[in-house]
Amino acid sequence: MDFNVINEYIPLYKNALLLTLKIGWQGILVSLFIGLIGSAILYFRIKILKTFIGIYIEIFRNTPLLVQLFFIYFALPKIGIVLSAEVCGTLGLGLLGGAYMIETIRSGLESIPVIQRESAASLGLNEMQSLWHVILPQAISVSVPGLLANVIFLLKETSVFSTISLMDLMFTAKDLIGMYAKTIEALFLLVVFYLIMLLPISILGTILERRMRYGQFGD
Questions:
Q1: Predicted confidence (pLDDT) at residue 38 exceeds the cutoff of 70
Q2: Which of 43, 62, 42 is nearest to 51 (CA)?
Q3: Is 219 a domain residue?
Q4: CA 198 to CA 205: how far, in whole Å?
Q5: Average pLDDT estimate for 123-142
Q6: Backbone φ/ψ region at 45: left (φ over 0), alpha (ψ -120 to 50), beta
Q7: What's the number of CA atoms in the CB half-sphere (13 Å) around residue 193?
Q8: % of the chain residues with pLDDT over 90
Q9: Which residues span the domain enclosing 175?
Q10: Does the pLDDT value for residue 140 go beyond 90?
Q11: How far apart are alpha carbons 136 and 129 in whole angstroms?
Q12: For position 149, which CATH number holds?
């Protein structure tokens, strides 16, 4: 292990980490937006849109992100839709994550007793007000472990961004290995920076899950 080489590589990995986090969190925000809209459609059982959401979930949960990125980055320009690599990464991650977020939030919504909805209606709240002010806050509380697991999953999936020439962590590691053959040092830093990115979220998830569980059921 050459620590001089590691020290030389660290600034490159810092830049790659920032780009990975930027695209990763942009994609996660897109996925959460899709998840909220899609789960609401399933919750209210809107017939035509419910079928569309079901097809969307099956397609994106059963195809790899790599294939989806290739389609967005290489196929869409053939029909005149040209997007930057960063936008492709954000869109691909958001669409993949949206399918998982819909199912996670939907399961949380369905775990809330019907009496909560009926009580909200008795207070004069309409369906959307009931969902937004009464049902959804409880559902999110129940869904926190699944949502954070999805966030970690999506951030790990950013490792395929290197295939569309984004200078993420994986691209940086492969580039340095190819140029200087310092495999051990490059992979060591890759592991360290993925841990820097993901370990705090994992710890936060454990803390939040414990607090949510105690808040609902007591210690």
A1: yes
A2: 42
A3: no
A4: 11
A5: 80
A6: left
A7: 27
A8: 42
A9: 3-214
A10: no
A11: 10
A12: 1.10.3720.10
Q: Output the six-digit token pair for 79.
A: 């029909």
Q: What is the 3-state secondary structure (H, E, C) of the chain?
A: CCHHHHHHHHHHHHHHHHHHHHHHHHHHHHHHHHHHHHHHHHHHCCHHHHHHHHHHHHHHHCCCHHHHHHHHHHHHHHHCCCCCHHHHHHHHHHHHHHHHHHHHHHHHHHCCCHHHHHHHHHCCCCHHHHHHHHHHHHHHHHHHHHHHHHHHHHHHHHHHHHHHCCCCHHHHHHHHHHHHCCHHHHHHHHHHHHHHHHHHHHHHHHHHHHHHHHHHHCC
State the Cα–Cα distance between residues 108 and 36, nearest whole angstrom. 11
User: In this predicted model, what pLDDT tens digit does every residue of 67-79 receive, in sequence order?
Assistant: 999 999 999 998 8
Report the C-alpha gap between 188 and 185 in whole angstroms.
5
Number of domains in the chain: 1
pLDDT of res. 219 = 43
Whether 41 is covered by a domain: the verdict is yes
Report if residue 68 sits inside a domain. yes
pLDDT of residue 216: 52
Model confidence at 163: pLDDT above 80: yes
Q: Is residue 173 part of a domain?
A: yes
Q: What is the pLDDT of residues 173-215, one digit of tens each?
A: 888 888 878 888 889 999 999 999 999 988 887 887 777 664 4
pLDDT at position 93 is 94
Torsion sign, CA atoms 65, 67, 171, 173? positive
Tokens, residue 45: 């059982």
